[in-house]
Amino acid sequence: MTGVIKKFFITSMAMWIAPLAVLYGFYYGYIPGASQLSAENKTLISGFIAVISVNLVIGFYICMAMKESQASTAPQPDPNFLAEAKASINQSETAASSSTAAEQTSGKDTDQVKGKME
């Protein structure tokens, strides 16, 4: 579970950092050729690349999730809960069987009483 949270946190941070880094790089001219563009073109291109960078991060996160093994993420039941549930089921089965036996014996008694009355 902690691995999933760690991957989610890292990806979330990358979704904030990547577009801001692209915008910062275009604004201060760290990206080659950006200084030769007009202000409008610089804004448009940096915005498009920032959106593409977010989509790449999301795609990377999806790929990581798809590669994750199913066996490691399969939920496992709590052993204490299972033991208590089995004990409860066994207890209710014994109570049900003893009440059925009591009903059968009481049914015989009523039949005998009916036979004596007739």
Automatic annotation (TrEMBL):
Biased composition (Low complexity): 92-105
Domain of life: Eukaryota
Keyword annotations from UniProtKB, A to Z: Cytoplasmic vesicle, Endoplasmic reticulum, Membrane, Transmembrane, Transmembrane helix
GO terms for cellular component: endoplasmic reticulum membrane; endoplasmic reticulum-Golgi intermediate compartment membrane; ER to Golgi transport vesicle membrane
Biased composition (Basic and acidic residues): 106-118
GO biological process assignments: vacuolar proton-transporting V-type ATPase complex assembly
Region described as Disordered: 92-118
Residue ranges of the TM segments: 12-31, 43-63
Subcellular location: Endoplasmic reticulum membrane; Endoplasmic reticulum-Golgi intermediate compartment membrane; Cytoplasmic vesicle, COPII-coated vesicle membrane
Keyword Membrane belongs to the record: yes
Main location (coarse class): endoplasmic reticulum
Its membrane topology: Multi-pass membrane protein
Family to which this protein belongs: Belongs to the VMA21 family.
Family annotation (HAMAP family): VMA21 (MF_03058)
Function: Required for the assembly of the V0 complex of the vacuolar ATPase (V-ATPase) in the endoplasmic reticulum.
Designated name of the protein: Vacuolar ATPase assembly integral membrane protein VMA21 homolog
Organism: Rhynchospora breviuscula
